[in-house]
Model the fold of this input.
Amino acid sequence: MSRRTAVPLLAALALLGGAAAAAAQGRVERGIPAAPDGTIRVYNLTGSTTVRGWDRDSVAVLATLAPGAGRVYLAGGGQSIKLGVETPMGVEAGAAHLEVRVPRGSVVWVKAADASIEVDGVQGGLDLYSVTGDVTVRGGPSTVRAESMEGKVSIDARTPWARAKTASGPIELGGGIGDLAATTVGGAVRVATPGTARARIESVTGDVVVEGRPDRGGAWEIETHSGGVTLALAPDAGAQIIVHTFGGEVQSELGRVTTKRQDDFAGRELVIVTGSGGSSMVVRTFKGPVTVRSAR
Amino acid sequence: MTWSCDAVRPRLDDWVEGSLPDAERREVAAHLESCEACRGEAAGLGALFSATAGLPREIQPPRDLWPAIDARLDEVVDDAGEVAPAAVVSLPRARSRRSGIPRWGLVAAALALVLVTAVATSILTRRWDQAMALKLQRAGERAPTAAGTMNDDVSDQEARFLAASQELLTGLEGQRLSPETMAIVRRNLEVIDAAIAELHAALERDPGNGELTRMLLATYQRKIDLLEQAARAGEEG
Amino acid sequence: MHATARTHSSVPVSALVRRAQAGDRAAFERLYQDHVGRIYALCLRLTGDPEEAMERTQDAFVRAWHGLGSFRGDAAFSTWLHRLAVNVVLTERRSIGRRERRVSAAAADVGPAYEPAPRAGLGVDLERAIAGLPPGARAVFVLYDVEGYGHQEIAQMTGIAAGTSKAQLHRARRLLREALS
Done:
């Protein structure tokens, strides 16, 4: 990071004093020593927050502040560090763009209102929450929890465990998530299969697309109310797909289709076997259209 | 060393009822042999008990109550007799007796516009939830199907979900969420509630359908998920 | 608790209950006839006032009708109905407010409407004396000594502590003995 202003680094509790100083801020740099695997909590309501893992034993933040963004603070030390932007009360805060560097092994926790959140290169657990901002995760975190009500949640990371949740924002998952769960009301969900042993995807009206070659032994559950479900599978993918639907259309251009039950009231149940089976995908929908096709 | 009247008097009730432990019973009996005052007390208690036992188990009311009862059987029950206050801000919640959820009333709205918006939002959803709770009760009153017990369990679970979502909604009102956030919540709640309504309608045509029931409960869970997500927005941590 | 319900009808209670659950009003009316005596006696002794007791009895049966869906038949119907009636009376008293004045008036001079079934001596006096008890003590006495509930059950139904229930019972018995002596 380059230094543009001569703001001294503080080693202990550090809160900038003075609203006047805050209002005049353009860029702020702060740094503090940190344990290699401590917990970093970041609060930035408006603007953007980017967190990257690095190999130093310190946390550093470079903040670019619009007028009225508020005060930057960086406090704590060792295992527990808190940093963020304290926004002025009663007025709409200006945007603050934070670039944060943390030790790679850190556990990172970020909370935002409409700020976007991006995390890369962190190997500890992640808990990321924004109301309307996008949340993006890359790298190899040990666990991920990423939520945004209206923003897009995107996890492209190799991780054993990830939970993505939106209300109306889209969700994109891939990169090798061992145990994944995606929950949304109306957001469009897109999931790449490789590396996933267990998956649970739940939507009310959002469409769901699952792509790729499901791992052998993978167990997938996809449930929607009226959202469409598309399984776009590699031609040689092996899957046993069970579809329960009450009013939705079911189309498959792959595999052998067997109708197990057809009943106006009890709905339809179909079994589709592609390749030599090997993974299990259960699709339940009330009336969403279900399509099984070849991945393009 | 025999017991005094002070030790015996408090135990007389239990002694007459026969519920004193053996050792104490012997002490009381020993005392009564030589204490006329306490014997009198015991006798009085005994007389009270026999008189009580002799009270008629049934008493017919002075007039036939059936016509009045019959007239009320068509009532829509959504309160246990409490009168709904007229003010919009104090909506009593529909009570689901099955799971014993206690009632509460909304706290009077604060002055901030944000809170008013929050209340307005919740009134919308609360009315919907009240309507759902009513439907649940009526569903419970209908003829049980072959899967009658399952219907009860489902209604119980539904009632629990409704209670949980109403608690969360109350929590949301307490926090000062932005109007934008509340609008997001409201929009998505409407989507979920519409889905729940469709599932209910389908269940009415095919009661006891396990798959539909599962979907219904899963959709309720979406509602809880949404409200919990919104609640996080207002939390400090 | 007292013995199982006697039914005056020739149809077993369980069949009537099932039919009532299915919406058969005639079956429910039979259940009403079979149980109204018990329920009215309970309400009368708990409230000390015949008009109020009749209202509560009606409330109880109406509530029973609406709540039949939740009756699973794992306990006797009469037990279930009885508890429901206790709940109706106690809830009503809490929400509308105590009618202490009416009760004390009943104690001093039992209103002309209250004519307990003619019984020799102690029976009639006892009913009057019960009606004259302070409400808390009366409720516990009726539930414990007359109806046979235990202190824990009473605590659950009334919202008071089990210890308070015992204390109220002692008080009730003492007051009753004084009133009758």
Summary: DSSP finds nine helices and no strands in chain B. Residues 5-53 of chain B form one domain.
